[in-house]
User: Fold these one by one.
Assistant:
Number 1:
Amino acid sequence: MGKQPKTAEHSANIPHWYSPTSELPTITHGDGSYVYDDAGNEYLDFLSQLYCVNAGHSNETITERMAEQLGRIQYVASSKHNDVRSELADRIADVAPENLTDVFFAVSGSEANETAIQLAREYTGKSKILTRWQSYHGATYAAGALSGDPETRATIERHAATTGHGKFLPPLSENGAFEADSEKELARKAAAHLEFVLTNEDPDEVAAVLMEPIGGTSGAYPGPADYFQRVREICDRYDVLLIADEVITGFGRCGEWFGIQTESVRPDLITFAKGCTSAYAPLAGVITAPEIASHFRTEGIDVGQTFGGHPIACAAGLGAMDAYEDGLIENVRQHASYLEDALYGLADRHDVIAEVRGRGYHWAVVFADPETGDPFVHPWIDKHGDNPVSAVRDEANDRGVLFGSGRPDTQIILSPPFTAEPKEIDIAVDVLDSAVDAVFDEY
Ligand SMILES: Cc1ncc(COP(=O)(O)O)c(C=O)c1O
């Protein structure tokens, strides 16, 4: 039988995170904070696609740099030096926390995390890695096993044994994690719990603690005041490395180059991806402390990836860093409180919104039944329930604004491009407002 002619919707492409019930637009072009589909519909992209097009769409500083690189050399082996690759590594090291000096490139966020744990294991000679429940660190085998989110982890672990990972609770006072009346109490309890897990896993076996400075898809929660200082102290006490997964929070998303910089804590390794090139080309990597880098510079590294540090992607990275330095991160700093106030206003108008949390241009709006305080439907428990939160997102989508789903999907995530100004924030929050009304009036 011959192959059928295909429309985009029925093409050979299988979308990632695919759900047979979702209707997907075919996005064909973008400009600034907006994208357009093949039917001519305009969408305000309040998710930067997947938390990654930080500089907005069609940024010429980036595209021109990529085009210029295409005319010079298109690929250089990742086992060799290349001028743009070296320049980007130096620029990333310049904006990273003071104690981090060297960069090892990868391709995706999952691979950056896998690389970071390879380096941590080789360097410490220990093998366990501790990560938080309800976290997301990627979908390849080791990165999926690091993830606390059961949808991802179960999909990986159903078919393959993954070893060397332990989990601890995130610093949250919901879903039965910790009861606390203040941030300080939450930080103290969450850190004491981490120490309990670490000592029970045997510190002599634990190479690293890996966590996102601000929850990414897991719900935009910053650590409570003091939390990261306590975590750093615990890692130092037991000779365990601290790895910050900055795949979402890196490159300005939360108002600083890296999310951990707001905490005044120095991690031993940072992983990055997404915003590094504003997603104009795939690029990721690990930034390391000098003692770890010098260990590998002396001993050598037996592994690598063909496309790690691809020159076209590195050129995109240089263009993106120019654009961020040229006012885009400043735009986040300037308008973050406008976004925050607008979201708190939204929460005041709807008693189904239980919490608003985030930092910079990365926020979560958390929904719960006002009578019980529990999620309307918890999709990790009731897998086939009719979830009003996803209905709100679909409704907003139909009204022309794209938002993200959280892990768990009891929250809506906002992660706009840094090009978004108060005008776009007003549009996004008004649409969310009317989408909440439309869904919960019926509920
Ligand atoms: C915090 C975090 N780490 C790692 C990843 C995995 O990145 P990638 O999808 O590029 O493999 C993601 C992706 O969303 C992420 O949010």
Note: Residues 108-110, 113, 136-138, 212, 216-217, 245, 247-248, 273 surround pyridoxal-5'-phosphate (CB under 6 Å).
Number 2:
Amino acid sequence: MKYVLVFVVLALAFWMWRKNRSPGAAPHDERVSGGTQMHRSNAPPQLMVTCAHCGLHLPQAEAVTGQRAVYCSLAHRQKEEA
Ligand SMILES: [Zn+2]
């Protein structure tokens, strides 16, 4: 029982030590434009739009703009605006 108490105190101290360390160093302030995404990214904060036909969320750069709304593809634009 005594060892359990010691372990808990040590764990608590370690947790507080880690908590005090983290706020200074932000995890990822740089490297916003990582190369892992498959689509081309003109601007890192991508504005997401919703296809008016199927409801798909996609970056505005890849959306097809119609007369009344935006769509995920030319086919969905033609179906909606035909
Ligand atoms: Zn669609």
Note: The helical segments are 2-21, 74-81.
